[in-house]
Predict the structure.
Amino acid sequence: MENMPLLVLIISAIVKIVIIVHLLLIGVMIMIWAERRVSGWMQDRLGPNRVGPQGLLQPIADGLKFMFKEDIIPDHVDKPLYVLAPAMLLVPALVIVAVVPFGSSITLFGYEILLQIADINIGILYILAITSLGVYGVVLGAWASNNKYSLLGGLRSSAQMISYELTLGLGIIGILMLTGNTLSLRTIAIEQGAYPWHWNFLIHFPAFLAFTTAMFAETNRLPFDLAEAEQELVAGYHTEYSSMKFAMFFMAEYMNMIVGSAVVVTLFLGGWHFFGLENVGGPVWSGLISFGIFFVKTAIFLFVFIWVRWTLPRFRYDQLMNFGWKFLLPVALTSIVVTGTLWIMTGSGSRLVVGIGNVVAAFIVVSIVAGLLVMNKTPEPAMQNDDPQITPSALDAIE
Amino acid sequence: MNPEQILFFLFGAVSLVGAIAVISFRHPIYSALSLIVTFFAQAGLFILLGAHFVAAVQVIVYAGAIMVLFLFVIMLLNLGTLSAKGAISGKLKGFAVILGLLLAIEGVYIAVNAINTPEVASAETAATESVNTTTYNIGELLFSKYLLPFEVTSLILLAALIGVIVLVKRESQEENEIQ
C-alpha cells in the first residue's frame, strides 16, 4: 500500500468507487423489491410478482415510470431550494460509503488493494459528520415546498434527527475505548476478529441496541417516520414532489438504510470476518469471500430493517422525544462509564466482565428512568406541554 | 502549482464566496445555507493543514448541529426577506463602518506580517508527521497537559445546560399558572 504508485492508487480508487456506487444503486432496487415482497409475505399476500422472475424487475418498471412522469414544480415553491433538496439528501447517503470497509483486500498484479474506498483515520467522525448533514435535505425540501404539512414534517424530522444523533455518537465511544488508538473503521473491524463472541455487539450490547435504534431514527423508517406520517401529514416533507425528484428522496432513504446496515456490521458485527472462512482461497478469492461475508451480514441486517418496519407502529411525537432523551441517551452514557470503569478495574483484560457489566448497568438505568417516569406521571396526558419543554432543552444539549 | 495548492485556492475561494453570500442574500435561509458552504470550505482547509479531527468536528458541530438550529429557528419564526432599506438604522451604520475599518486594518496587518516573515519550513513536515496521529494526540493532550481547562470547560457547559433547562421550566410553569 505504501509503495503503490500514484497512478495505480487513482485507478484502483476510481474502479472501487464505480463498483460501489453501482452496487448501492442495484442494492436500492433490490431493497425496494424485497420490502414489497417481504411485507406481502408478512401480511399473507403476494406482493409484486408479475414483472420478471418473482417480480424482480418491478423496480426497473417503477424507475421507468418515475422518469416518464411529468416533473411538476408547483408555483408556490422556493424554486432553487426545491430543486436542490433531493440532491442534498441523496449526496450524503452516497458519500458516506467511502469509508466503509467492505472486505479485507485483493492482491492484483502485485499490488494489495484494500476493499475500501478510503481508509481514513477519522472514519467514524466522518460518518457522524455526514449523517448529521442528511437532515438538510429533509428540512429544506419541507421548507421550500411552502406547504404546511411539508413544513410540519420537516420540523419534526429536524428535531428527531438532532436528538437521535447524540445517541448515535455516544453509542460508538465504548467501542473506541477498547479499540486501539484510532477511529479507522478498518482497524475496528480487524480487531474484532473472526469469532462472534469477540464481536462488539456482545461486549457493548446496550450501546449496540441504542446505536441501532438511533440509526433507524436517522433513516426516518417506520417506528420513527413522523416526518412523513401519511395519516397525519399527507406525505410529510415530500408531499409536493413528483417524478424523479420524489424518486430521489425515496432512493436516499433506501441508500441510508444500506449504508447504515453496513456501518452497524462494521462496528458491531465483526465486519467481513466469519470464523472458518478467514484463510480460504488465494490472494484474490479470500478478498472476494470476505466481501461475500460482509454482503450477507448487511443483507441480514437489512431484513431486520424491513421486519421492524412492518411490525412496529409509529411513535407519537412526545413518545419519540421521551424515548430518545430519557431512555436511549442515558443507556448510551452509562455504557461509556461502565465500559471504561470495568475495563480499567479488570486490568484491560476481561471482555466478559465488561459485557455483563454493561447489560446489568443498562438494565438498572432503564428501571430507574421508568420508575421515575411512573412516579412523576401526571393524570392528564399533557401532550401539548411536552413540546415546548423538550425541544429547547434538546436543542441546547447539542452545544 | 502542486495539487495541495490548487485545493487550497479552491477551498479558499469557496469559503470567501460563501462568506460574501451570507451577507448579500436578502433571505435568511439562503444566508444560513451560504454559511454552511463556508464551514465546509473551512473544513477542507483544516484537512489540508493535516488537522483531520478539527475538520470533522467543524462539520459535526457547526454544519451539522448549530446551523440546523439556525434553520430551525428561521423556519419556526418564519422570518421574511429583509427589505432593502430600513434594515440598518443610522446609528448601527456608523458602528458597522467603525468595526469594518478595524477588521480591514487587522487584515492588512496580518497580510503584511505574513509577507515579511520567512516561510516556516518545519510547519509542513510537522503537519505530515502528525497526520496519522492527530486524534490520538489531541486526546492525549486533553487528558494530560490540558486536563484542568478541559474539565472546567465541560463544567461550564453543564452549568449552561442546567441553566437553560431551569429557565425553560420556570416559564412553562408560569404559563400553566396563568392558564
